[in-house]
Amino acid sequence: MSTQPVSGRSELTYRALADPNRRHLLRLLDDADGPLEVDTLSGRVGLHPNTVREHLELLSQAGLVTRSPEKRTRPGRPKTLYEAAPRQTRSPGSEGYRFLAELLASFIEATVEDPASAAEEAGRVWGRYMVDRPAPFLQPSSLHVVEQIVTALAALGFAPEERQKEKRILISLHDCPFRGVARSHGAVVCSVHLGILRGMAEELGGSVSVDDLQPFVEPSLCVATLSTGE
């Protein structure tokens, strides 16, 4: 058990999770069936192994990741393997947010007649609040709208990546901050996220519409599909 003061551990946890690349690495380790080496993680996140090693070091200092030497039956220096620390040993504050999200999502599912619609509408209201409304009589281009949406998603920690496919724009969300809760309460959590996207698009002038949000097309990947009128 760590003897580091709680305030110090909290600061380290905050620093470790403030970077989207470190959050992505932690999510990958959470999803993995076993420990992973640096080269494997480097290939999955598209970063140089030395950069990945630095990120893992900070995650380790924060108690979010553990490391151990590879067990080898052949000659050679063993590699260092990394895995996510058990959730019960992580920061009480970060787990508190997860607990609150679980509580609210389960409450909505149990008490609201149509949880998905209610959650989407709540997300839509917040989505409108999260972007800057254009000036009167100004119609932003679809490119500007998409840029604003992607910027807002990045600030929320989704690690978004956009690409165009004909008149549609696909936004890959590599790092859902509420992925764990979404797996058990997707009707609420994913609907909130869909509502946020639609609210942002509507507030920015309507030149872009949000068609759908496909959750977990891969273990750590959701994809939003947007359409433009241009």
What does this structure look like?
- With 230 residues, the protein is α+β, with helices and mostly antiparallel strands.
- It has two domains: 6-90, Arc Repressor Mutant, subunit A; 114-228, Muramoyl-pentapeptide Carboxypeptidase, domain 2 (2-Layer Sandwich), CATH 3.30.1380.20.
- It contains nine helices and seven strands.
- The chain has helices spanning 6-17, 20-31, 38-45, 49-61, 92-111, 115-129, 142-156, 179-184, 186-203, and strands at 36-37, 65-69, 80-84, 160-165, 168-173, 208-218, 221-228.
- The chain has a four-stranded antiparallel β-sheet, with helices on one face.
- Strand 4 (160-165) and strand 5 form a beta hairpin.
- The longest helix is centred in the middle third of the chain and has 20 residues, at 92-111.
- The N and C termini lie far apart (58 Å).
- Mean pLDDT is 85; it is low at 1-9.
Give the helix level as a range of percent.
40-55%
**Helix- and strand-based class?**
alpha+beta
Look at the structure and give the CATH class of the largest domain.
Alpha Beta
Q: Report mean pLDDT, rounded to a whole number.
A: 85
From the 3D structure, determine the CATH topology of the largest domain.
Muramoyl-pentapeptide Carboxypeptidase, domain 2
Identify the CATH architecture of the largest domain.
2-Layer Sandwich
Please tally the β strands and state the result: 7
Q: Please give the domain count.
A: 2
The Cα radius of gyration reads: 20 Å
Q: How many H/I helical runs?
A: 9
Uncertain segments are 1-9
Strand content: 15-25%
Q: What strand line-up does the widest sheet have?
A: 4-5-7-6
Strand and helix order: HHEHHEEHHHEEHHEE
CATH homology superfamily of the largest domain:
Trafficking protein particle complex subunit 3
